Amino acid sequence: MKTTVQTLTKEKQLCRILEESGKLIIAGPCSAESQEQVIDTAKALAADGRVHYLRAGIWKPRTSPGMFEGAGTAGFQWLNQAKTITGLPIATEVGSEKHVYEALKHGVDLLWIGARTVSNPFTVQEIAEAIRGVDIPVMVKNPLSPEIALWEGAINRFRRSGIEQVGAIHRGFSQQEKSTLRNFPNWSVAQELRRRMPEIPVICDPSHITGNQNLVPMVAQRAMDLGFNGLMVEVHPNPTMALSDASQQLKPKQFAEMLDILLQEKIDQSPNDLLTELRMEIDILDEQLLNALANRMDLVKQVAMVKKRHNLDVLQNNRYQSILKNVARIAGEKGLNPNFIKKLFLGIHKESCNFQQQQIAENV
Ligand code: PEP
Ligand code: MN
């Protein structure tokens, strides 16, 4: 499969990889943990022959303090040994100007910007300034929130700093409630970025989308079906012992088996596989609908208390009419059938009135 990257010149690395291999494949452990772990992973990936960059986090942006925060600059020695032994170029995440200088000093071949960093334009600007004048590929992950302008803005900060090889990584978006996937893929946001910036290669990170090694192949397959330009996958020789993201890393063998299927010449995907992928996303959306309904009911309970305290009627016709008008308008904007939405909200409103009556009766 050939991909054309319009604004990058032929001799540029990313462009060359995409032209020669069709897909850009970045793989390696979440974090560089030890010399042995980095070199073992690199050897397995190099032997596979389909990986273009060895990834490993040197500094890890952890959610809570006290967790493993990366090996720090000591890890560069392991990455460079791995590079010398296997010939694989190396990639790491940078989250500050200081990280950029350290990574460049230690011969890193590709930099990526993590989701948390992309959410902060000050830091993105600082990093872009630090890379200015260096011809190195920079991959920009999506921000934590599905805010396309923030993602696009970060990519543009690098381009305005004269960095020619810029790509994007779709790693899903944070969700308020726990669900089957660690981060919600929200494919339409990534698809919109691809539409707005057709010259930017966009790859998918199924490891951070799923948070679960069993689901990684399914999400990776979906990315391939949608025509993404490649993958960034977490691979660890012994995932259960990993110091970060243990549940989502593949063993080298599992990774190779996944690539065998993903990269084979496209034979028609079985309808069952496709249905399974789509249904997994539907299940997550259903869970989100139910979460929203539960949150709505919590508010209804508070409304019931106010009505009781002030002796107000449960059914207030103005409010009821305004809900129906409002949802009819939104349904129209979203192309949903207005009759169906009306019926749905009649049901929700009825349930909410019954619930309020019950609450008021219980609290007399
Ligand atoms: C990572 O790639 O290990 C990482 C921390 O990713 P993200 O920024 O997507 O959470
Ligand atoms: Mn990780």
Describe the structure.
- The structure is a single chain.
- β3 (90-93), α4 (97-105) and β4 form a beta-alpha-beta unit.
- 52% of the residues lie in helices and 9% in strands.
- With 364 residues, the chain is α/β, with parallel strands linked by helices.
- The protein contains 14 helices and eight strands.
- The relative contact order is 0.10.
- The chain has an eight-stranded parallel sheet.
- The longest helix has 39 residues, at 271-309.
- The structure holds phosphoenolpyruvate (PEP) and manganese (II) ion (MN).
- Phosphoenolpyruvate (PEP) binds at residues 30, 57, 61, 93, 114-116, 141, 171, 208.
Could you provide a short overview of the structure?
Helices cover 52% and strands 9% of the residues. It is α/β, with parallel strands linked by helices and 364 residues long. Helix 6 (121-131) runs parallel beside helix 7 and helix 13 packs antiparallel against helix 14 (338-362).
Task: List the main descriptive attributes of the protein structure presented here.
single chain, 364 residues, alpha/beta, 8-stranded parallel β-sheet, 14 helices, disordered N terminus, binds phosphoenolpyruvate, binds manganese (II) ion
Task: Round the mean pLDDT to the nearest integer and report it.
Answer: 92
Low-confidence runs of at least 5 consecutive residues:
1-10
Distance between the ends: 70 Å
Strand order of the largest sheet: 7-6-5-4-3-2-1-8
Number of strands: 8
Coarse structural class: alpha/beta
Shape: elongated
Share in helix: 40-55%
Quaternary organisation of the protein chains: single chain
